[in-house]
C-alpha cells in the first residue's frame, strides 16, 4: 500500500545501529498517518467501526485483537500495527485490546504467542502517560515473579518494561519495587530442596522484598565457561534489562551498581568483559 508516512525517529549511523541491535533496541519505524490507505486497510482487517467513539466499545475489533494475539501469523500483524500506526490509533488499539487491564494483560503475558505482542506494545509506547498505564497493568505478572521465573521464559517482557521506564522516565521506582517483590515471591514458592525447618523459619521472617542488588545476579543468571577458551552463558533478556536499569534516574542506580560490582565477583566480571552481550550491557 502506497501511503504517506511520518518519521518516528532519527536515523543513526551504522555503528550505532549495530550496537542497538545487540542491545535489542528497536529503531523507530515510520508511522502511517490518519486517513491514509494503510490506516483504512488496518481498520478493515480489524473490522473497526469508525462510528464508535470509545475504542473499548468496538463491537468486533476487541475479539479480533484478542484472537490475532494468540495466533502465530496474526500476532505478527498486531506487532506491525503497534510499531507503525499513528499515535491516536496506537492508543485506541491497546485500549480496545484490553492491554491496560491487569487481568487481561496477565493472560496475554502468560500465553506463549501473545507475550511477544506485549513486548512489541511496550517497545513502541508513544508517551509517558501510556507508560504509566502499562506499568500498572503489569503489576501482577511482575510482583508474582512470573516474568522472572526461569521456567516461564518471560524475562523479555521485563526487559521491555525496563526499557520503556528508562525511555520515558516513568514508573522507575515502581518497577524496582515490583522486581524486589517478584524475587521475594519466587524465593517463597521455589525454596531450595532439602532446606531445614530452622532455615525455613528464618526465610519466612524476611520482609516481602529482596534488595535490588541481590536481584542483579538472578537477572543475569551467569553460567561459567565449561573449559578454557569458552564464553559464559547468561540470560540475554536479563542482561538487557540490567542495561536499562542502569539508565534510570541517577538516584536509583546505586543499588544496581552495587549488585554488579559487589555481588557478581571478580571472575564473573572478567567473563562478562569477554562476552559480546555481557560487555555491551554491563
Outline of the structure:
By secondary structure, the protein is mostly helical.
Helix content: 55-70%
Q: How confident overall, as mean pLDDT?
A: 89
Instruction: Compute the CA-based radius of gyration.
Output: 21 Å
How does the overall form come out from the CA principal axes? elongated
Strand order in the sheet with the most strands: 1-2
What is the element layout, followed by pairings?
Elements: E1 5-6, H1 14-23, E2 31-32, H2 37-45, H3 61-69, H4 72-84, H5 87-96, H6 102-110, H7 114-123, H8 128-137, H9 139-143, H10 155-168, H11 172-189, H12 197-205, H13 212-220, H14 236-245, H15 254-261, H16 266-273, H17 276-281
Antiparallel strand pairs: 1-2
Helix pairs in contact: 3-4, 4-7, 6-7, 7-10, 8-10, 10-14, 13-14, 13-15
Description:
Helix 7 (114-123) runs parallel beside helix 10. The chain has helices at 14-23, 37-45, 61-69, 72-84, 87-96, 102-110, 114-123, 128-137, 139-143, 155-168, 172-189, 197-205, 212-220, 236-245, 254-261, 266-273, 276-281, and strands spanning 5-6, 31-32. The model is unreliable at 1-5 (pLDDT under 50). With 282 residues, it is mainly α. It is elongated, with a radius of gyration of 21 Å. The relative contact order is 0.08. The longest helix has 18 residues, at 172-189.
Question: Keywords, please?
Answer:
single chain; mainly alpha; two-stranded antiparallel ribbon; 59% helix
